[in-house]
Amino acid sequence: MFDVFIGRHENKIDAKGRMSIPAEFRKVLDQGDPDRDAGAYPRLLLVIGDERTPYVQGMTVARGATLRRQIRRLKPADPRRIDLEEVLYELSVQIAVDETGRIVVPPAAREKLGLSDKAMMVGRGETFQIWEPETRMAKRSRPAAAPELGYDPEEDPMVHLESEEEGE
Questions:
Q1: Phi and psi for 15 in degrees, rounded to 5?
Q2: Distance CA 70, CA 79 (A)
Q3: Is the pTM higher than 0.85?
Q4: Which of 69, 77, 18, 21 lies closest to 44 in space, CA to CA?
Q5: Where are the alpha helices (DSSP H) in the chain?
Q6: Best exposed site among 33, 52, 89, 160 by fewest CB in 10 Å?
Q7: Are 131 and 9 within 8 A, CB to CB?
Q8: Alpha-carbon distance 29 to 18, whole Å?
Q9: What distance in Å separates the CA atoms of residue 111 and residue 151, rounded to the nearest whole number?
Q10: Is it the case that residue 168 has pLDDT exceeding 50?
């Protein structure tokens, strides 16, 4: 079993903004919220962000705690810290998965993405993204070639990973 968010899932959104979280994602959220009260449903951090991102980013509360620690290491006047604090604290919400495995997508997120009746959830390992489906498919692109890194966008990206035996 993976302990990261994987896959691409298109889900319906009802009139109240409720959307199902894929079962695989719920398992990761459950593992990433070990300190919640007994019997409580897992929580997640939903980073709505601003116009710089065409998606909303979701993550476990444990991942959110890691990001908070990284932000605290930056000096208070550092512009990166100020920017990160705005995105992570002001433009984010903590929500819980309900008993049916759904969340209510906040109105600000629905408005930002232009969501009506469907959304696409895309796994990104430590995080996942919520997109308006047509926008996601239109934005799909490969990174540009980076010969200095040995990256060719026409090549299978799996060739860049070492096998366990080679990396030990």
A1: -60, -25
A2: 14
A3: yes
A4: 21
A5: 23-31, 61-72, 79-85, 107-113, 133-139, 164-167
A6: 52
A7: no
A8: 17
A9: 37
A10: no
